[in-house]
TrEMBL record:
Organism encoding this protein: Streptomyces spinosisporus
Record-given protein name: Nuclear transport factor 2 family protein
SnoaL-like domain boundaries: 4-123
Gene3D superfamilies: 3.10.450.50
InterPro entries listed in its UniProt record: NTF2-like_dom_sf (IPR032710), SnoaL-like (IPR037401)
Pfam families in the cross-refs: SnoaL_4
Top-level taxon of origin: Bacteria
């Protein structure tokens, strides 16, 4: 499957919009990012996946002041597969109020809806080990 340049740009902007909406506290606009039945997979953080936009919104409100003050998304790579699925992989940096930061990878499945592209599945994986723990082969 081939994606038009306009679709690639729309998907990249969709992924980028997440940080703006969350950092601005616009949690009432999460439907602009996700499908209603989205799965937001946080298992790599020891949490159960969140199901649906309302669950994502509630988790953000519950986290409160522990939320990062800034989400930065970089290195967005959009891939369309032969089976028609579209994936976006990106890197995220989160800056906390105390100045500490963390890095994650976002692995998204995106689908075209009547309202435009939306994320139907997001897996968030922490980046804690250089080179993903790989060492030089002997």
């Amino acid at each position: 499957m081939s994606l038009a340049l306009e679709d690639r740009l729309a998907i990249t902007e969709l992924v980028s919009l997440h940080g703006h909406l969350v950092d601005d506290g616009c949690l009432d606009r999460l439907e602009e990012l996700f499908t209603a039945d989205v799965v937001y997979d946080l298992t790599d953080f020891g949490q159960e996946p969140l199901h649906g936009v309302a669950a994502i919104r509630e988790a953000a409100w519950a986290l409160g002041a522990a939320n990062p003050v800034a989400h930065h998304v970089t290195n967005v790579v959009v891939t369309a597969s032969a089976d028609g699925q579209v994936h976006a992989r990106s890197k995220g940096l989160g800056i906390k109020a105390d100045g500490t930061c963390g890095s994650v990878s976002y692995d998204d499945t995106v689908v075209r809806t009547a309202d435009g592209w939306r994320i139907s599945h997001r897996k968030v994986s922490p980046r804690r080990t250089p080179l993903s723990g790989k060492t030089k082969p002997a």
